[in-house]
Amino acid sequence: MTIRPLHFLTALLAALALSACPVSGDDDDSSTDDDDVADDDDTVADDDDTVADDDDSAGDDDDSVADDDDSAGDDDDSAGDDDDSTAAVFAPTPGLFEYGLIYFSLNDCNATQSVVGTGATLTALNPTSETFTWDYTVDGDADASCFYAANGDFVCNNTVTSSNLSPIGIQATIGITTTAQGTFTSPTVAEFAISKSLTCSGSQCWVAASSFGVSTFPCTATFTTTAENAE
Fold first, then answer.
1. Domain boundaries, the chain
2. Which of 56, 109, 165, 228 has the most beta carbons within 10 angstroms of its beta carbon?
3. 3-state SS, residue 2
4. Each residue of 107-146: pLDDT tens digit?
């Protein structure tokens, strides 16, 4: 068969077109390989994983902060301990403190229990100013204003009283100065150290001295005793 040139050219172009399809396919395949930049995506994913690791590190930092919070909590506990210390403040218990045995270290007034009394009543307690008052059981004795410390020690202002003996026929006036101090060993127990000094004025002090069993005026009676709250 004779092929006409025009037909041959057309057939050749068709053949070339057919042969070019696979080549174009190869390009697409290569492009597919380029699309396999999914491998690159995997790399990015790896980067994401790394970021995730960074997040974990941040989480570790958060844990450290939590530890700091725990430390702060420890400080709060310490503050609580301080509060406990502040709450424990000493104060004596009001009421009648009855003397126990009387021990005289000096007694040239020849004093007896009737002279020193049987005790004292703690009144007018003020924990803010750490003050109180001793109201002695002896008739005629003035109340003593006192101060106490956190360790239980107390000291009182001196009291001065006087007694005119003329109603009983003795022309004399007896003056009594009382000093008191001591220590509260507990809110209901007090150790006293008391001193009473007696003076006399008037024309019949010698009669008064005889009545009191005193050799002469002035005289002093100093004693200690332990008193307990009877209420």
1. 10-86, 95-229
2. 109
3. coil
4. 999 988 877 889 999 999 999 999 999 999 887 788 999 9
